[in-house]
Amino acid sequence: MTLLAVAVITWIIWVVVGKTLRPVADIRTRVSEITVSDLRLRVPEPPHDDEIGQLARAVNHTLARLEEAVEYQRHFASLVSHELRTPITALQTRLDEAVLYPDQVDTRETIAASLSIAGRLRAVIDDMLMFTRLRTASAPSPEPVDLGVVINDELLTTCRDVPVFTHVEGDVKVLGSGSQLIGVLNNLVVNAQRHANTRVEVSAARLDGHVVVSVTDDGDGIAPCDRERIFKPFVRLDDGRRKDPNGTGLGLAISRATAVAHHGTLQVEDSPRGARFVLRLPAMEPKHPRPPSSGHGTEAPDLDPW
């Protein structure tokens, strides 16, 4: 092979490799330009569906999710600062008055009011931590949870002035965190009692591989335009503020985040009267019985259906 042939082959290889890797260089350049303060940039996507094209689309998908997460955090931080500013300002005002006008201020009343405000602040912070933990932490270790037992035993202890009528049909076991799911159902029932006129109905049944829990009240209901909005953090309708002025506005957001963490859904559905919250969770599948042993010995029966 002559020196000229070697040079030509080398040049061809250099051109081909350079053309092949040029999209990678473009991706590297664009990624280096992206900062946390501006996640709107995207890497160029080659028209071909080769490995480099798939890489570019995967990078853009990741950037889109990252941008959404950062924007949500900024929005949530803004909401948190607004929710905390009001009670902190009220607390500071009362304490300032007690310091500036000690002879004109009822000390006992000031202390009681300050403790009430501090209690609300703690409730907001506790709910914020719970909500953040549900959105960022890994899924809890699953354990069998019989929602029928939860509904018929745990929820009956939440009954206030409004009676709760329950109906559980069939096997309604799921896998998840028992304490978290009890918290969701308890929150839904307490919320329904708050808005009901005479009764709250809780039902659970197995349907299409899911356990469907419905919590219905006979109150004024929720307008269709608000049925999704109420699950956002710190969103409280006027009726909710009036009936529960000390609420944090995070109960339904926490309940939905818990449902999502359990691979389920929580939404408001149509009802002839009042509001109807529907929780859907993947049903726990029963274990299939083991086939009979082919040996001569006698095998102990499997008495555990789960």
TrEMBL record:
Task: Identify one Gene Ontology CC term for this UniProt entry.
Answer: plasma membrane
The main location is membrane
Task: Show the catalytic activity.
Answer: ATP + protein L-histidine = ADP + protein N-phospho-L-histidine
Q: Name one GO molecular function term.
A: phosphorelay sensor kinase activity
The record places domain Histidine kinase at 79-285
- Record flagged with keyword Transcription regulation: no
Keyword annotations: Kinase, Membrane, Phosphoprotein, Transferase, Transmembrane, Transmembrane helix, Two-component regulatory system
Which InterPro entries does the entry link to?
Answer: HAMP_dom, HATPase_C_sf, HATPase_dom, His_kinase_dom, HisK_dim/P_dom, HisK_dim/P_sf, Sig_transdc_His_kin-like_C, TCS_sensor_his_kinase
* EC number(s) reported in the record: 2.7.13.3
Q: Where in the cell is it found?
A: Cell membrane
Q: Quick one: where's region Disordered? A: 284-306
Please report the stretch or stretches of sequence annotated as the HAMP domain. Answer: 18-71
Q: Matching PANTHER family, A to Z? A: SENSOR HISTIDINE KINASE TRCS (PTHR45436:SF5), SENSOR HISTIDINE KINASE YKOH (PTHR45436)
UniProt protein name: histidine kinase
Q: Whose protein is this, by species?
A: Planotetraspora thailandica
| Lineage of producing organism | Bacteria, Bacillati, Actinomycetota, Actinomycetes, Streptosporangiales
